[in-house]
Design a protein that fits this description.
With 136 residues, the chain is an all-alpha fold. It is built from six helices and no strands. The longest helix has 29 residues.
């Protein structure tokens, strides 16, 4: 599992950057604000979270969600994974840590940002796997 986990770390970080580029600086403030830290700490935390979530994608999620086609993995698998982390991360973990109300499910930047993240992560993992297969 360890090597499967590591396969998703770099794609996770890259997808996390895309999420932040889409969502803007406010997301860094929100993540940092969970622990009373500034937006730079929020940025670092978001990158670390993205790396771990990318690793969980390749280490766990792709082994249980087998869609049989790289395009379906990107479109459907990425959508499911992004929505999963929107529910778990943005609507459960963040409010619990920050002391807010859980499961508010507001459709906005966070919702779409997590979908962007899921699709980008799935795309980057498929692309990475194809590139690694050609180099062997």
């Amino acid at each position: 599992m360890q090597s499967s986990f590591i396969r998703g770390v770099i794609p996770g970080v890259m997808a996390g950057y895309l999420f932040l580029a889409y969502a803007g600086g406010g997301m860094q403030d929100m993540v940092g604000g969970m622990i009373d830290a500034n937006d730079f700490v929020g940025f670092i935390l978001h990158v670390v979270f993205s790396a771990v979530i990318g690793g969980l994608y390749t280490g766990f999620f792709t082994s249980i969600v087998k869609l049989g086609n790289p395009l379906l993995n990107i479109v459907i698998g990425g959508l499911i994974y992004g929505l999963l982390w929107w529910v778990v991360g943005a609507n459960l973990i963040m409010p619990l840590i920050a002391g807010g109300d859980v499961f508010q499910f507001g459709i906005g930047t966070s919702f779409y940002g997590h979908i962007v993240f899921g699709h980008a992560l799935a795309f980057l993992v498929v692309l990475r796997d194809m590139a690694m297969a050609k180099s062997q």
